[in-house]
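Example S7 (structure tokens).
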């Protein structure tokens, strides 16, 4: 395929029919979103409201990862594409909001978009829960004032993340939420709308990313080259464990470098540690804690209440309930088992109100 610029804004594209259609669609998307800024304007992904910026495209045999990168780069949507996104895309849409077009592709291709800080990660739906559960969740409980606990839980459930749990607790007369930080703004909006007399809403937040903002655009970029680039950007001495290979597709414009790096590592099954001016990148299994067993002898809470929250244990974990003694037995990697014990103890100590 070849491109030749003519006079004005005209471009001549020559090649196979599918190549010409795909190239023309890319140019149409870029033109439609030329001055669009994801962080400043509404979209389904960021605010829940449709964007007013429409796109048209007619793709044939384009890889799903490449389509996502093209749209993300044009919309200034900070995005990393997980390696689980495979397959090609043959799709025609005309004058559809760009975010609706993306959501349509995600639905048809069984993909899921997860937000981590300012950067998004698109993966297969099967892998999305696994990725999201790799970070410790945040917890919150609150008693509704203007509606029943069951009704509030049902309303809040509409904002639940892929791995989130929203449960009505009859003993506490409160809703208990365990989810990722990025889901809590939506919970806050629903709580405020349904329960206007609830008072100030102080939902938990993750620690902010502090890295300087960067712009990167790669299609199947070599992972080692990307790590070298982050070493230059961060000014840190970087050590990458031998044997780590792979490729990454992303379009991140104006995102914190530590946020982008963390999402890239999540997509690759890797982890990192920063000690002083040394950044060490390693396979996640190398940094995993040893298996630990924690027990909680409940005094007040019904042990069955904790069953839904076991989804936040890792694949190596398990929750066993000893009914007679009202004891939870939690087996998992040390960090996650400790988190679950502390969560259960906090709920068990709490009183109504």
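Recovered sequence:
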């Amino acid at each position: 395929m070849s491109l030749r610029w003519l006079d004005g804004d005209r471009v001549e594209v020559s090649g196979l029919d599918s190549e010409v259609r795909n190239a023309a669609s890319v140019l149409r998307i870029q033109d439609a979103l030329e001055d669009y800024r994801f962080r400043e304007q509404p979209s389904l992904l960021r605010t829940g409201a449709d964007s007013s910026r429409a796109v048209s495209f007619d793709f044939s045999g384009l890889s799903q990862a490449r389509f996502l990168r093209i749209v993300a780069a044009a919309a200034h949507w900070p995005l990393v594409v997980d390696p689980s996104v495979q397959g090609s895309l043959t799709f025609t849409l005309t004058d559809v909001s760009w975010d609706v077009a993306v959501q349509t592709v995600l639905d048809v291709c069984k993909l899921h978009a997860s937000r981590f800080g300012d950067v998004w990660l698109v993966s297969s739906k099967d892998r999305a829960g696994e990725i999201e559960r790799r970070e410790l969740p945040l917890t919150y409980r609150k008693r509704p004032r203007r509606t029943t606990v069951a009704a509030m839980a049902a309303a809040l459930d509409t904002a639940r993340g892929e791995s989130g749990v929203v449960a009505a607790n009859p003993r506490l007369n409160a809703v208990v939420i365990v989810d990722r930080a990025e889901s809590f703004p939506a919970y806050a909006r629903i709580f405020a709308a349904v329960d206007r007399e609830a008072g100030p809403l102080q939902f938990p937040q993750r620690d902010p990313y502090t890295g300087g903002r960067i712009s990167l655009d790669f299609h199947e970029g070599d992972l080692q080259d990307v790590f070298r680039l982050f070493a230059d950007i961060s000014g840190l001495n970087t050590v990458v464990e031998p044997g780590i290979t792979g490729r990454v597709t992303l379009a991140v414009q104006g995102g914190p470098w530590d946020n982008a790096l963390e999402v890239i590592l999540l997509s690759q099954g890797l982890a990192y540690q920063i000690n002083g001016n040394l950044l060490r990148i390693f396979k996640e299994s190398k940094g995993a804690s040893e298996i630990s067993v924690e027990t909680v002898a409940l005094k007040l809470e019904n042990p069955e209440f904790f069953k839904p929250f076991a989804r936040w244990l890792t694949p190596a974990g398990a929750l066993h309930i000893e009914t007679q003694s009202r004891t939870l037995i939690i087996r998992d990697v040390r960090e996650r088992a400790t988190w679950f014990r502390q969560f259960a103890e906090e709920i068990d100590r709490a009183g109504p109100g």
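Notes on this example. Residues 289-353 form a domain with the Ribosomal Protein S8; Chain: A, domain 1 fold (CATH 3.30.1370.120).
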